[in-house]
Amino acid sequence: MHTPKLHRFRAAALPRTPSATTESPAVRWLLTAITVTFLTVFLLLPLFTVFQQAFARGVEMYFASFDDRFVRHSIRLTLMTAAIAVPLNLIFGVAAAWAVTKFDFRGKSLLVTIIDLPFSVSPVIAGFVFILIFGAHGYLGPWVEQMGIRVVFAFPGIVLATTFGTVPFIARELIPLMEAQGRDEEYAAMTLGASGWRTFFKVTLPNVKWGLFYGVILCNARAMGEFGGVEVVSGSISGRTNTMTLQIQQLYFDYATVPAFALASILAFLALLTLILKNALEWWAHR
Amino acid sequence: MSIQAIHIQKTFGTYRALDNVSLEVPDGKLVSLLGPSGSGKTTLLRILAGLEFPDSVETSRVLFHGQDVTATPAGKRGVGFVFQHYALFKHMTVAANIAFGLNALPRRERPSRDAIQARVAELLSLVHLDGLGKRYPSELSGGQRQRVALARALAMKPKVLLLDEPFGALDAKVRKDLRRWLRTFQEEIQVTTIFVTHDQEEALELADEVVIMNNARIEQVGDPQAVYDRPVSPFVIEFLGNVNRFVAGMRSNQPTDQSKDVLYVRPHDVELEPEESETHQYALKAKVQHILSAGNYGRVTLERLGTHEPFEAEVPRERLRELDLQPGKVVSVVFRHVRLFPKGEFLESAVKDGQLEAVAG
User: Fold this and answer.
1) Which of A12, A53, B36, B236 is the most buried (most CB within 10 A)?
2) pTM of the model
């Protein structure tokens, strides 16, 4: 416990200058220790483990993991899924946030609640629902089959499940921001004779561009990491419907630890990149 | 351009914001909508602007120069609107803000780029912000921002200028300067102007005509002198500046509940005399509580003997010295002008002439 490093940390956590709070040093020390322990065990350690396992047999083995046909296919599938799901949610999220914050209408609170639905529903349930709708015996299944489109156990199903799971991200990012900004600037643009489109593109959108950008990054990270819903609708067929997350699971079950973690490290790296970008954006926006 | 609002009715859910309000504003006048928050003044202004619409566009009507614009959207009414918190476009320069309306015009009506630039420069100099076109709103002070907002509204050559609490977010000194500036400015450009305020001093100082609103209705309309000197309701007299309120009868120094009338006296209409003064038969007696003397006038807080009603008097500094007032001292009190409600009669020098007795009794 008493490594010099930890000791230094402790000194920093307990400032010698008088504190505005009245808690005793023991309480403050305890709360700090709990927080640090929690963060280490639940956030830092897993992240570290991913990279450690990925590079366990050296850098060469790490890169060799990506030589696999199935691994490459899973990466491509994930990128394609995100490339469709994110723009869909971008359009929906912006439209929803615009409607909710700049207009008054009946059923507004219902809309806000529905936007949050994917947060409260288990992705597995969402996956099953899509099977019930688009499966061979589903409501729309026979109909889409007739049109020659396979949804379940195929790419469209993966896109549907991913899009569903990531619906709230952009709207949730924008709504508080646009709420705080109010409607006066839009009203001002209106009195100056600007059309709705012009007001949206020249006034509303520039005001939320950083928030929107961050929402897109977050939505993308989440889309690439989607697992539960996709597993149900995709059927997990290696080389056909396995996304990165599904491929990771399969590799791990096949005792291919290094490739599994190598693939996982890409997602972990994406997560880190997202956080860095978020901080950079915040710094940029507040400058 | 003259403005008429006829039978305006507006509800938000179950809340009634405007209850059958009618108003006429003559061409070129500077009119103030004055009232406490929730009185409906801002709603009325927004309905005139076309940012809000009455419950029914058939029974409620808005006329600009006799023309029905009730259902016309804001952008087509030719109004300039200035918001309390400026509502400048944050990500645009001052010049781009001012040019926004001109740039939004359809191509065939839009002036050339050079013409727009010239117009922006002209407007900047009109609001005394020459050379600040390249700045962003965040680099300006509150007073400067509000003048940019005004220039932006004027860029479209509006026939009506509407201002929603235009000085509300500014500090006292800037507010006063900007107020005077707006007054002369409006006289110069002669555009019909309506502004909303909850500050009675601002309304009385600035406006040709004051519209006093309360509870979704208009209480009184008139020039500042008229509404101050001849308020038509207890609300108006209480809202326009400090006023003393006496509920108990004036017949004696004893509280009586026979008279339900309420008597109002402005502090500057209260005269103090030495206690033993026999000049005024009906003068009431009061005890000095507190004296605050800063500036030309001293503010004296008193308590009426017998009824313990507290009231205030504004007395010139010199008179204070003459009377040698101290807390605890008893004085005779004479009212120069009083107003009696619900009867609403206007009584001048009533106590001196012994008339107050006749009316109040």
Assistant:
1) B236
2) 0.80
Contacts of A191 in chain B (CB under 8 A): 49-51, 74-75, 79-81, 153
Kindly report the three-state secondary structure assignment for every residue of B242-295: CCEEECCCCCCCCCCCCCCCEEEECHHHEEEEECCCCCCCCCEEEEEEEEEECC
Please state the separation of Cα B263 from the chain's center in Å.
23
**pLDDT beyond 60 at B348:** no
CB contact under 8 A, A191 and B75: yes
Out of B182, B205, B239, pick the residue that ends a domain.
B239
Instruction: Provide the edge-to-edge strand list for the sheet that holds B262-265.
Output: B244-246, B262-265, B337-341, B346-348
| Chain A from 161 to 190: CB within 8 A of any B CB | 184-185, 187-190
Domain span including residue B164? 3-239
Sort out which chain A residues have CB atoms less than 8 A from B49's CB and list them. Answer: 191
Q: A68-285: CATH homologous superfamily?
A: MetI-like (1.10.3720.10)
- Whether residues A194 and B75 touch (CB distance < 8 A) is answered with yes
* Contact yes or no for A190 and B74 at CB 8 A: yes
CATH code (residue B317):
2.40.50.100
| Per-residue pLDDT, A1 | 39
Residue B170 sits in the same domain as residue B248? no
Using a CB-CB cut-off of 8 Å, the residues of chain B touching A211 are: none
